[in-house]
């Protein structure tokens, strides 16, 4: 006989329902510390209170995977490195020793705790119920739960490679024994795209009681669809979904421009001794505004003693809590990439110069210098080196920001066959004037022109610096200019020239621009949990596992690749070696 099982994890209780379910079983699938099940009136959630409890329950379970959403995507990449203080669990992840089921970062049941809460809400919410204004009461939350589920599934499958796909709530022990389909990333994305498209235009729900603006806790459905389409290889659709988010984020007839926030040498000081920084402050802000960089986050507890307190600040930074011994450091590969960029300056007298490559500080792109501070501190009567990465100054874990949306839109446009469009997002920024002058002339067909013009960035809302350097209302620069100066004048940063003898010129341009996009992603998104998945996506797309492998082996510099090969016992040219190994009651 089947038994009712598995506490559906939440923060509150709708008291009428708890007695209807016994809380037993489920040893491998869900964590046993979960405490409450959210039920109301038997089979349906049909009261606004149910919504608050349900959303809070989902968010609480997302806290348990928040750190992993960053660490599994960053530690396996090439932009951070371990040190003498790195925990064994993180070190094993970094060196691709991924079989240990006791590793604290290898707990798939935490993902399914989120998924099962979402499944329960999706199955039981009364989406036909209307209020006295004839508005459907639960549709916003219904769409949010589907999007949370999609985000969690994408995190899960990127970590494990192939996972059981479950869309019904598991409430009975017998359900654990069912043969759920085990799907890889493309198949999961295809199913989730079909699931999300009907709710893509639903507004997000709003409620009080959080330490942050509740608009920040929801993953935007349009961005989620962009990600799913990008992984599924549906590049035109991916670009369109990112664009739909950017163009409607602040309402119709509005803008969500890339901004002019940057780290820049003072324009008229030729000795390159002082620079200004409006970049790092943009990244640390957690307010909601029409021009905010932050799009979404997972709100986490602020006290270390609380369940699901995020350890990212103590992992990346020197703090009193870790005795000023951070576990991860910027890699040689990241430093080399940053310093290899050519900084272009443009004075108020319209003179173009380039920063010397041998500056004692601030060589190359300035973003790394802006977000990483290295110094020393007196701790326990001894001086110790100190590291601060400003991206981790908060208790919350950020999931999306504006640069990600623009970079991924560019990646999708590039792979859709429009490398010049992608390049302009990096180099100059885009508005309709840029599109007409620098992208449309290279569209080979009328259909291509129609597609490109469907991305409208009106000049009165997207004011691009490269078209008028004297304008006072500029709000758009090329993404590369956030750290490398005036990219629009930089002769060292250019659209790729196709060598003679290359037959497929478009494919050549696409791959070269894709390389530029991956470098830009490293410079802009370092430490944020994106790098390994970016490399994975390109390697799978090119059917070239060595693309990823060679980047990882160069983590400590090109001249120390042999060292990394010897430390990483597995062959990274084998795709199966990329994923955590999981053997659970429902799993491989």
Q: Which sequence of strands runs across the widest sheet?
A: 1-7
The end-to-end span amounts to 26 Å
Question: How many strands?
Answer: 12
Instruction: Give Rg in angstroms.
Output: 24 Å
Strand content: 5-15%
- Low-confidence parts, pLDDT < 50 over ≥5 residues? 1-42
Tell me about the biggest sheet? 2 strands, antiparallel
**Oligomeric state of the chains?**
single chain
Q: What is the structural class?
A: mainly alpha
Helix segment tally: 21
Overall residue-averaged pLDDT value: 89
Helix content: 25-40%
Which term fits the overall shape?
globular
Please specify the SSE layout and strand pairing.
Layout: H1 15-18, H2 48-74, E1 80-82, H3 88-94, H4 109-124, H5 139-160, E2 163-164, E3 182-183, H6 185-196, H7 221-232, H8 235-248, E4 263-265, E5 275-277, H9 280-284, E6 294-298, H10 312-316, E7 328-330, H11 332-339, E8 344-346, E9 352-354, H12 367-371, E10 372-379, E11 382-389, E12 397-401, H13 402-415, H14 419-427, H15 432-439, H16 446-453, H17 481-484, H18 505-525, H19 531-542, H20 545-553, H21 561-567
Antiparallel strand pairs: 1-7, 2-3, 4-5, 6-12, 8-9, 10-11
Helix pairs in contact: 2-4, 2-5, 4-5, 5-6, 6-7, 7-8, 7-13, 8-13, 13-14, 13-18, 14-18, 18-19, 19-20
């Amino acid at each position: 006989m089947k038994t009712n099982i598995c506490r559906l994890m939440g923060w509150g209780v709708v008291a009428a329902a708890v007695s209807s379910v016994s809380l037993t079983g489920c040893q491998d699938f869900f964590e046993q510390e979960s405490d409450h099940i959210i039920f109301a009136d038997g089979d349906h959630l049909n009261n606004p209170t149910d919504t608050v409890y349900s959303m809070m329950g989902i968010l609480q379970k997302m806290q348990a995977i928040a750190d992993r959403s960053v660490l599994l995507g960053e530690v396996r990449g090439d932009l951070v490195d371990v040190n003498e203080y790195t925990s064994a669990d993180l070190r094993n992840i970094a060196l691709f020793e991924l079989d240990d089921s006791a590793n604290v970062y290898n707990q798939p049941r935490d993902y399914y705790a989120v998924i099962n809460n979402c499944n329960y809400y999706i199955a039981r919410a009364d989406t036909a119920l209307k209020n006295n204004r004839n508005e459907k009461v639960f549709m916003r939350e219904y769409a949010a739960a589907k999007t949370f589920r999609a985000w969690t599934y994408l995190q899960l499958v990127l970590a494990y490679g192939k996972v059981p796909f479950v869309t019904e709530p598991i409430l009975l022990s017998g359900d654990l024994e069912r043969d759920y389909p085990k799907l890889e990333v493309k198949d999961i994305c295809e199913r989730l795209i079909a699931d999300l498209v009907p709710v893509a235009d639903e507004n997000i729900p709003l409620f009080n009681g959080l330490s942050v603006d509740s608009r920040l806790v929801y993953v935007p459905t349009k961005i989620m669809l962009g990600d799913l389409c990008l992984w599924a290889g549906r590049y035109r659709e991916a670009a369109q979904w990112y664009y739909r988010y950017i163009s409607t984020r602040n309402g119709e007839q509005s803008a969500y421009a890339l901004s002019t926030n940057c780290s820049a040498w003072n324009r008229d000081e030729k000795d390159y001794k002082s620079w200004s920084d409006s970049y790092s402050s943009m990244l640390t802000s957690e307010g909601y505004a029409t021009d905010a960089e932050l799009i979404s986050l997972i709100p986490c507890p602020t006290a270390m003693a609380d369940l699901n307190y995020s350890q990212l600040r103590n992992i990346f930074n020197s703090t009193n809590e870790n005795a000023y011994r951070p576990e991860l450091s910027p890699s040689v590969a990241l430093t080399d990439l940053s310093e290899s960029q050519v900084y272009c300056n443009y004075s108020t007298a319209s003179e173009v110069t380039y920063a010397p490559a041998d500056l004692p500080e601030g060589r190359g792109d300035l973003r790394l210098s802006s977000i990483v501070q290295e110094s020393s501190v007196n701790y326990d009567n001894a001086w110790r080196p100190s590291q601060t990465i400003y991206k981790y100054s908060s208790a919350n874990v950020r999931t999306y920001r504006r640069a990600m949306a623009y970079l991924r839109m560019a990646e999708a446009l590039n792979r859709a066959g429009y490398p010049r469009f992608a390049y302009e997002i990096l180099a100059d920024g885009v508005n309709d004037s840029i599109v007409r002058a620098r992208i449309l002339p290279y569209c080979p067909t009328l259909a291509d022109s129609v597609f490109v013009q469907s991305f409208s960035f009106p000049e009165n809302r997207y004011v691009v610096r490269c078209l008028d350097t004297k304008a006072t209302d500029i709000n758009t620069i090329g993404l590369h200019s956030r750290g490398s100066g005036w990219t629009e004048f930089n002769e060292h940063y250019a659209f790729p020239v196709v060598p003679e003898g290359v037959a497929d010129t478009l494919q050549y341009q696409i791959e070269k621009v894709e390389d530029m996009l991956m470098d830009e992603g490293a410079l802009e998104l370092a430490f944020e949990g994106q790098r390994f998945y970016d490399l994975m996506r390109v390697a799978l797309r090119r059917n070239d596992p060595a693309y990823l492998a060679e980047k990882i082996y160069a983590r400590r510099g090109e001249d120390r690749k042999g060292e990394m090969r010897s430390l990483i016992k597995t062959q990274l040219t084998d795709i199966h070696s990329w994923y955590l190994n999981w053997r659970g009651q429902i799993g491989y």
